[in-house]
Every structure is written in structure tokens, then in C-alpha cells.
Design brief:
The protein has 16 helices and 43 strands. It starts with 5 loop residues before the first helix and ends with a helix. The protein has five domains: 187 residues, no CATH class; 180 residues, D-amino Acid Aminotransferase, Chain A, domain 1; 113 residues, OB fold (Dihydrolipoamide Acetyltransferase, E2P); 102 residues, no CATH class; 134 residues, DNA primase, PRIM domain, CATH 3.90.920. The longest helix has 19 residues. The strands form ten sheets. It has an eight-stranded antiparallel β-barrel with strand order 1-2-3-4-9-8-7-6. Strands 20, 21, 22, 23, 24, 25 and 26 form a seven-stranded mixed sheet that branches. Strands 12, 13, 14, 15, 16 and 17 form a six-stranded mixed sheet that branches. The chain is globular. The chain is of the alpha+beta class.
Length: 865
């Protein structure tokens, strides 16, 4: 493998060629250089070079590399090149070895995957990790062998992509479409005709290849900007496609704009073709200097962490301060006079990347949208952690289709949709309170509920005049649940479109937890005919990928694509402040549990927690400074409650809060919420009980075996009444026996009936064994007995939720058990925040909890209630 430059130097006439002669072989100062030079010689090929032993080991690759793992490229080993050849871009004159134009096509560094590079070289199998501008991740060079197993005399190798998150299944030869230098942005034709091109003063008899011809796009220069091209739209899906042949892009939160350039001018058009060039003069001025094209993309404002911020975009437009906006380009429809729409997406994206390399070097306002071909679910989960809107998945082999197409699908991190405003509510007749919204249904609006959060002082100041300007005398809403007129209700003509963020739907069909994000001037009310879609599940098909460490690489890649800042911890779309704050101190060799750890636990366990907590009034034990600091019990919504939490009216002075999705659970963790104590009611129906809880609390001196025995006594009593009981630990020294009951109209019971039944059963158990059980709350009455607490079954009473952590030393979890686990040797302390990962991998003992519910009516009669 020893590097030498004699062959390289012997083949060249350094008085005639601009190529560097090369110094004595020496190692570069930092890292191992990697580069690819696109070389228009007798045949167009790609010179692949990696630094080893003080030189650039080199191969001539017959075609453009491919990130498709099924594609292999022939790579012919050639002479070693000097390290300073890595900066060469220009034209080798006729008559010289390798005559033709050289373009810096990719550059970066590389590292071997194996520790002994010399042995790998001798074996003919060089596995590497590339850190280039265009090629990244794991690659391999494999030397071909003869039938007798000896290396080929021609030193032929294969260059191939290995499977990792940078592989792009189905890409084929799309990278061949990229004709732009990574260092200067020039095409091969522009390099050949460049002012700095070196020209030989000593022509020779040997004729070199013809100069590269400009592309069709470069030859075509329009006299005016092209006409509007109808755009392609997405279908909304529950989760990203899992099959190969798809690429996944992050969804940027901004305005969709099509940029048409021609004749030294640029026109910016909305998704409907409206000319908005005057609204964004800085972008229009920049784009006028780009090569003729039609580009599809998204205009965004970036926050301090370089993340898209729709509210900031609205503010920039309102204040006419749009100079800092960034245009993210994700498709190229025309280049010059060439229509690219029939080409596969993989080819259009490659052409777009080259276009951006040429056009976007100077200003930085134009950015290329990267795409990822690892599992779509992993990309979605990482995007959600980055607090991004979601993921757009696109078929790599599909052409560009106007209108909604199944080759582009959208998966959302959070419900983010357009709705039509039909009215607004006020407090005291004047002060703005909420929007009343719906979607178009022929000539009326189908009511979707109220949007009660997301209004700062500046937003309200601009929004109310806009509402009053389109005031109306009658309601535009129709259908079930349509709001009625009142002194605090103000109707408007259904012409304003609002963008809202939400968590899906309640059982009654209203939007959950809807928050106002801004008015959409680029869309008309007539377009808003589809009901908002619930966010995609990030805990469904690949729940094992839900924890942050498992998607760290994907998160890093997406951060780079979004130009995101560092040091920001976001879990399920919720920013975690003070993520390193210790909530549970270290125990022995177990590390401390931080706020970020708690947030990730809530995210990982959401699928198990939400069926028992979701959309129910929930009391929260908060410990903002951890279990060693002050704790308090929060029932009601407080000023500044996180918009990810739903407010539930329980006919009290102030609403209760409830989580409705994983973001809501994480928001509770962000506030220092360590314990969850929901009402025992049906989701969205706080006046309808759906379970009965018996809390078995042992007196001092009793061991856990006594509690186990007591739980089986209660179980037998409930089964005798025709009910199916379940059991869970409490995260402490007791057990909860819980009975699910039906909540349909014929089976519903009142809170008073619920509590009376729990009391009757508890008293019956006590009467059967008065030496073992008590139903008296006072400590002095326990006297070595098990206290059966039935008081958790009245209105506003709560019990700790299954899977809820406990704000106690040991980080215990209220863990659902099967009755088979309730036996001698059961240790409730084994279920904790240090062991949850393994616990979540086990089958859920309570998966049939809801389907096991029976009507309580018969049991009530049996107990004389």
C-alpha cells in the first residue's frame, strides 16, 4: 500500500499541465482527505481519492456513485496522486495525459472502519466512513478476483454503498445529474470556459476531448419569468411509509412559494398562483440573479435556534421586515427551457442540488432541502423531537404530478391545519377570548369547536380589527354542536382562514387543545373543506425507536438540514428547560434521574399511560426542584399552563388540566410533574365514572405478603359479583385493585352510586375478616390491619395512574400486574424509572382493561344499592 508519486510525475508534462507536481509524500495535518473529481476526459468519469500513506490513493469510477446499496460501480485503480491534487479544478490541455476538464465534485474526510488498514488493503476490502458534502456514511471498495481467487491484474475494484441511515434505496444513477463544483459552484462547461482557465502555450499533436457542452438549461435564457406551474400536494397519512424507494424530507413551517426566474427577473407565487413578489422584495431581488428555472419550496422565518417559526414569519410579513427570511427549495420543475417534471424525483433532486450549489453560494437565502432514506418512522420521531411540523415522504421514482397525489404523503408531529373562522367569543362583551372555527360544508361551516390559546397581546391587537371588519349578523355554522348566539358571541363572515395546532379530536368531534398560530392569507376559505387530521403516531409501528439515544444520528442529521442550534433538548415537540436538573438523586450505582430523563420516560411510556389518563381531569404532584425540594398538589389550571395541555370544565372555579397526547404528558414533565392522579371517569366525560378503585394500605408492621393476600380476598369478592378486577402496585407499599365498568347510556352510574358500591364491597370484606381489614381512615384504628380505602371513587377523587412515577425515593412506578405475578416474592420496588425500558418491552397485563368492563347495574342490586 506504500504511497509513491513516480508514476504520477512520469505521466505528466508539468510545463504544460496546470496539475500540481506534488511534494514528497507526506501526511496531511488534520484527518484523512477524501474527494471526488468529476473528470470530462475521453469519457466522463469520477476520480475517487482517499488519503493513505501520505498520498491520495485513486480510482477512476466509470459512473457517478450511487447511494443505492444495490448499485455497484466499477472502480479502476490508477496511480497515486499528491495531496495537493485535492485542490485542483480546471482544464488539462490537449496533448496531455488525462486531457479534459476537472470539477471538484465532492470533498471531505474519511476514516477506515477497520483498525488495520494495511491488512484491509492486502485483503482487497477497504471499508470506510465518508464525511463528504455529497457522500456520507459507510462505503466500501472491494477488489475483484480471478476465478483462481487471486487479485485481478487490472486492479479492478467495485465501489458500493453499505446500509446505514445515509443509504437511498431506489436512487439508481440520480447523482449523475449533479453538475456543480462543491467549491466554486461552477458546471463543467463553466469551468472549461472560465476566465481563470489555464491555457497551454505549447500545443501538441495530441487532441484532447471536446469541451463539455453547456446543458440545455444553460443554453436557454428566457426573456421573461415563466408562467405559474400547478403544484403537487400531499395526502395526509397516519405514519410514514415503511417500504423502500421513498425519501423523507422534514416539513418546514412556512409559506409554500413557487419561484419562477427568467429575463433577469423573478416572480414569487403562492400555491394558487397569486403573485406575492412585492411582499418579499429581498427574495425576489436575490432570485432575479439565479439561473432561469421554476423552483418549488417553502419560505420560512428562523428563530434564534435556526428553527422554522411560523409566528415569526407572520410578524415579519406584518411588519414588512422580510429581509431575513430563508427559502428552502425542495423541487426543481424547470431548468432553463427544460421541463423536468417527467423525470423521477431522484433526478430532479440531484439537479436541484447542483442548481443550489451554483445559485446559492453568495447570499445564503436559498437552501437545499436534504432528504433521508432511513426508516420514515425514525425520521418522523426525530423531527418531532426537534419541534418540527412533520415529515413529507416522496417516491423517488415518481414524476411531478399537479394536485394531490399518493406519491407525496405527509405525517405530522402535531395537528397543524387550516380552519375557517366563523365567530369569536369575548369576556364581558368586549375582551377577546377565543375563536369559533369550522370547515366548509357546501354553503355553511361544520363546527369544530373553539380555539382558546395562542393569543399574545400583539396577536390580539391585530386579530380583533380583522374580525370586526368582516362581522356578520347570523351564525355561519350548521350541524350538531353548532354554537348558539349569546351576548359574548360575535359572528363573522366565513372568509378568514386560521392555522391552528391541535391534538386531534374529542369524542364529541371538537378539536382537542387547539392553539392559534396565525392567519393564512395565502389560502381562501373555499379551499378549507377537509377536516383537520390528527397528528401521526410516533409510538406505533416502531415504539422501540422512541427513546432519544436510539435516534441520535437521525436527530443530528435533521438538525443539520434545518440549520438547527445546539444544546436544545426537545421531547415530543416540547422544549425542556433545565434538562439536567436532578429530580430523583442517584441511588447506589444508579445515576440521578433528570428532568430530561422524566420527559423521555413519559414519551416512551405514553402508549401505556394515555389509555388511563388521556382526556381526564388530572391532579399532578409537582416537584420543580426534585423530590428533595418542595412538592405541591396541582388540580386546577394555572396561569401560563402549557398549551399542550387541555383545559376541562368541571364546574369549579377554574378548569382542570388533562393530557390528551404524548406532548401533553411531556409538558407535565417539563413543569416538574412527577405524579399523575386522574379522575376515574370516562375520557372527555368527567361526570361518568368508568372504574372503581380499592386501595389496600397496610399498617406499620405488616409485610407485603399480607397485602398480596388481602388483594386476593378483594378479587374473589368482586368476581363473585360478576366483575373482572385488575391489580397494580402503587409505587409504594400497597396495591390497588381496580374494576373497569361500562359507560354506555344504559350502563352509566352516578358518582354517588360508584362511591356507595365501593364502600359496600369494602364493608363486606371487613365484616368477613374484621381482624384483618378496616375501613376507618384514622391511623389508630388500623391496629395491624389492612386499610381498604374506598374514598377514591367519588367525584373529584383521584388515584395514582398506572405507569405513573412516584415522588418518593427509589423512583418507583405504579406498575400494572397480572394476577399471576401477585404471589410470594413480588417486590414492588423492582418497578422503577431505572428499569422502565425493560418493563415496556413486556406484554401489557392491562391491555384488555377497557374491553373487560361490565355493567355495574346488576352488582348494585346485589349489594342493595
Amino acid at each position: 500500500m506504500r504511497g509513491e508519486l513516480k508514476t504520477y510525475q512520469a505521466k505528466r508534462k508539468f510545463g504544460e499541465t496546470p496539475e500540481p507536481k506534488g511534494k514528497k509524500a507526506a501526511r496531511a495535518k488534520a484527518g484523512r482527505t477524501y474527494l471526488i473529481q468529476r473528470h470530462a476526459a475521453t469519457r466522463l468519469h469520477y476520480d475517487f481519492r482517499i488519503e493513505a500513506d501520505g498520498v491520495l490513493k485513486s480510482w477512476a469510477v466509470t459512473k457517478a456513485p450511487s447511494r443505492d446499496t444495490s448499485v455497484k460501480r466499477l472502480a479502476v485503480e490508477v496511480e497515486d496522486h499528491p495531496l495537493d491534487y485535492g485542490g485542483f479544478e480546471g482544464t488539462i490541455p490537449d496533448g496531455n495525459y488525462g486531457a479534459g476538464t476537472v470539477q471538484m465534485w465532492d470533498t471531505g474526510t474519511w476514516e477506515p472502519q477497520e483498525s488495520d488498514l494495511e491488512a484491509a488493503w492486502a485483503k482487497g476490502q477497504i471499508k470506510m466512513v465518508l464525511h463528504g458534502e455529497r457522500l456520507k456514511g459507510k462505503w466500501a471498495l472491494i477488489r475483484l478476483k480471478s476465478d483462481r481467487g487471486k487479485p485481478s491484474k487490472r486492479n479492478n475494484w467495485l465501489l458500493l454503498k453499505e446500509k446505514d441511515e445515509h443509504a437511498v434505496a431506489g436512487e439508481g444513477d440520480a447523482l449523475a445529474e449533479i453538475d456543480a463544483s462543491v467549491t466554486t459552484g461552477r458546471s463543467l462547461a463553466e469551468i472549461a470556459e472560465g476566465k481563470a482557465q489555464w491555457t497551454s502555450s505549447k500545443p501538441t499533436g495530441r487532441k484532447g476531448p471536446a469541451k463539455p457542452k453547456p446543458s440545455k438549461a444553460a443554453q436557454s435564457r428566457a426573456t421573461k419569468p415563466p408562467a405559474f406551474v400547478p403544484i403537487q400536494l400531499c395526502k395526509v397519512v397516519d405514519h410514514p411509509p415503511g417500504a423502500g424507494g421513498w425519501a423523507h424530507e422534514i416539513k418546514f413551517d412556512g409559506y409554500r412559494l413557487q419561484v419562477g426566474i427568467g429575463g433577469g427577473k423573478a416572480v414569487l407565487r403562492t400555491r394558487k398562483g397569486l403573485d406575492w413578489s412585492d411582499r418579499f422584495p429581498d427574495l425576489a431581488a436575490d432570485a432575479a440573479g439565479w439561473p432561469d428555472a421554476v423552483i418549488d419550496g417553502e419560505l420560512c422565518a428562523l428563530d434564534d435556534d435556526h428553527m422554522p417559526d411560523f409566528s415569526a414569519l407572520q410578524a415579519a410579513i406584518s411588519d414588512e421586515k422580510t429581509g431575513g427570511l430563508v427559502y428552502f427549495a425542495f423541487d426543481l420543475l424547470f431548468e432553463g427551457g427544460e421541463d423536468l417534471r417527467k423525470l423521477p424525483l431522484s433526478h430532479r433532486k440531484a439537479r436541484l442540488q447542483a442548481y443550489v450549489d451554483r445559485a446559492g453560494k453568495a447570499g445564503g437565502r436559498l437552501r437545499y432541502v436534504e432528504h433521508f432514506a432511513s426508516t420514515g418512522q425514525a425520521v418522523l420521531e426525530s423531527a418531532c423531537r426537534m419541534d418540527l411540523e412533520g415529515v413529507i415522504s416522496k417516491k423517488l421514482d415518481a414524476p411531478y404530478h399537479a394536485g394531490r397525489s399518493s406519491s407525496w404523503v405527509k405525517s405530522k408531529c402535531r395537528g397543524r391545519d387550516e380552519v375557517v373562522i366563523g365567530g369569536w367569543s369575548s369576556a364581558g362583551g368586549t375582551r377577546f377570548r377565543s375563536l369559533l372555527v369550522g370547515v366548509k360544508d357546501k354553503e355553511t361551516l361544520r363546527y369544530l369547536g373553539r380555539v382558546g390559546t395562542g393569543y399574545g397581546e400583539a396577536v390580539t391587537k391585530a386579530l380583533v380589527p380583522a374580525l370586526k371588519k368582516v362581522s356578520a349578523d347570523k351564525s355561519p355554522f350548521s350541524g350538531a354542536g353548532a354554537p348558539k348566539a349569546g351576548k359574548d358571541i360575535h359572528w363573522v363572515k366565513p372568509v378568514l382562514v386560521a392555522e391552528v395546532e391541535h391534538g386531534g379530536y374529542t369524542e364529541s368531534g371538537s378539536l382537542r387543545q387547539a392553539a392559534f398560530k396565525g392567519l393564512r392569507e395565502d389560502k381562501t376559505a373555499a379551499e378549507v373543506t377537509e377536516a383537520p387530521q390528527a397528528p401521526a403516531s410516533t409510538l406505533g409501528e416502531s415504539a422501540d425507536e422512541a427513546t432519544a439515544p436510539r435516534t441520535a444520528k437521525e436527530t443530528t442529521t435533521i438538525k443539520a438540514a434545518a440549520k438547527a442550534g445546539k444544546g436544545k433538548v426537545i421531547v415530543a415537540g416540547v422544549t425542556i428547560s433545565s434538562p439536567d436538573k436532578v429530580l430523583w438523586p442517584a441511588v447506589g450505582d444508579r445515576p440521578a434521574i433528570t428532568k430530561a430523563d422524566l420527559a423521555r420516560y413519559y414519551e416512551a411510556a405514553a402508549e401505556r399511560i394515555l389509555p388511563h389518563v388521556g382526556d381526564r381531569p388530572t391532579s399532578i404532584i409537582r416537584a420543580p426542584d426534585g423530590i428533595t425540594g418542595e412538592t405541591f398538589f396541582q388540580r386546577h389550571a394555572m396561569a401560563g399552563s402549557n398549551p399542550r395541555l387541555k383545559l376541562i370544565d368541571v364546574k369549579a372555579r377554574t378548569p382542570y388540566v388533562a393530557a390528551v397526547d404524548v406532548g401533553g404528558l411531556v409538558a407535565i414533565g417539563q413543569s416538574g410533574g412527577l405524579e399523575l392522579h386522574p379522575w376515574g371517569c370516562a375520557p372527555g366525560l368527567p361526570e361518568v365514572p368508568d372504574q372503581i378503585t380499592f386501595d389496600l394500605d397496610p399498617d406499620e408492621g405488616l409485610d407485603f405478603g399480607d397485602v398480596i393476600a388481602a388483594s386476593k380476598v378483594v378479587k374473589a369478592k368482586l368476581e363473585a359479583l360478576g366483575l373482572k378486577p385488575f391489580v397494580k402496585t402503587t409505587g409504594g407499599k400497597g396495591l390497588h385493585v381496580v374494576v373497569p365498568i361500562k359507560t354506555d347510556a344504559r350502563s352509566r352510574v352516578t358518582w354517588d352510586q360508584n362511591k356507595a358500591f365501593a364502600k359496600a364491597v369494602s364493608e363486606a370484606v371487613r365484616a368477613d375478616a374484621p381482624d384483618r381489614f378496616t375501613t376507618t381512615l384514622a391511623k389508630k384504628a388500623r391496629g395491624g390491619k389492612i386499610f381498604i380505602d374506598y374514598l377514591r371513587n367519588g367525584r373529584m377523587a383521584t388515584a395514582v395512574a398506572p405507569w405513573s412515577p412516584r415522588a418518593r425515593p427509589g423512583g418507583g412506578i405504579a406498575y400494572p400486574l397480572s394476577w399471576g405475578q401477585v404471589r410470594a416474592g413480588l417486590d414492588p420496588s423492582a418497578f422503577n424509572l431505572w428499569t422502565y425500558d425493560a418493563l415496556l418491552k413486556k406484554a401489557d397485563p392491562w391491555k384488555d382493561f377497557r374491553t373487560s368492563a361490565v355493567s355495574l347495574k346488576s352488582a348494585l342490586k346485589t349489594m342493595g344499592i
